[in-house]
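Box S1 | Example of a co-folding query
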Amino acid sequence: MKAAVVTAFDQPLEILEREVPEPGPGQVLVRLETCGLCHTDIHAAGGDWPVRPTPPFVPGHEGVGIVEQRGAGVTNRRIGERVAIAWLGSACGSCRYCIDGRETLCQQQQNSGYSIDGAFAEYAVADAAYVVPVPDGVTSLDAAPLTCAGLTTYKAMKVAHIHPTERVGVFGIGGLGHLAIQYAQIMGGSVVAVDIERAKLSLADELGAEHTIDAGSVEPVAAIQALGGLDVAVVLAASAHVFDEAFACLRPGGRLVCVGLPADGAAMTVPIFETVVKGISIIGSIVGTRQDLVEVFALHAAGRTRVVAQTRSLEDVNEAIAEVLSGDVTARLVFEFAPEPASTPVVV
Ligand code: NAD
Ligand code: ZN
Ligand code: ZN
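Box S1 (continued) | Returned holo structure for zinc ion
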């Protein structure tokens, strides 16, 4: 099978021919149909963060495909079932976080495309208990961005506890941001969209944002304060200064939800006096649970969300990464795999 492999940080990915992996006990073998390119994959390939993956590894955590084999003991997934492989590759299932509904905080978790090989490949093995079934009303092209970009921003809006009529600032209208706008509105908020690219702001407008702010040409804090400020600010841009800007836009009682992950060493400046007297909450939000993803798929199947994505071939992975970094991609790029890959697994 073909796989896109990070062989060294800051080197182009290599398309390598690899053996189709065998599903171990509790695992399934998934033939990928699609996999989205999340900015996290670019951070992974660059070794940007304090905890680094170990090359060689296969990125990809927006994988959608068909279960082709089941390892020993797997009873909860069917051969032929369509499933999503998300960032939460597996967790211990028994710690306090796994038990109380916060499995993405499990300290024993494995992450697809980071600590274990992910879905930038024709086949991937995955923990059968952590793949999430994709309902019929969701295409594989739409399901891929929903598996991280959708899941993460849906969860970010949940932890923000948006009340109807509240104003939500979304900073960064990329893969995550275009879905964040929609979830904020579903939860009753009105949206102020902030980006530095005109095309992304046009999309935000199309998706129903009440205001759009071009941070490339106006000072975003002054512009948002002139509108009366924000109840919730969700930061999806990978630049530390955007967190400071978002904080400065909050009204009393405001919540800053931190989602974007700038490179190692980035810090935000939190003025203590304003935080205290304005009763500000600062919340970190990491992806979402399997149940959150079930809800994200259900909303999409019900026609409540729209995914904006363009397809690319896995062979063009390095060009696709360059496109994302240049700011030219309207929302999400998704690798689409041939329906019948040249290499087929040996069924045992
Ligand atoms: P993306 O590249 O598609 O989008 C980022 C957007 O930020 C782009 O539209 C870009 O134009 C915009 N931007 C850049 N500078 C800006 C500025 N100064 N002000 C406003 N907007 C600006 O990336 P993505 O895939 O949406 O991911 C965004 C970030 O979220 C990445 O750091 C990624 O690693 C992180 N992420 C976090 C989680 C989590 O669970 N916390 C999950 C997925 C991704
Ligand atoms: Zn656990
Ligand atoms: Zn992601």
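The radius of gyration is 20 Å. DSSP finds ten helices and 17 strands in the chain.
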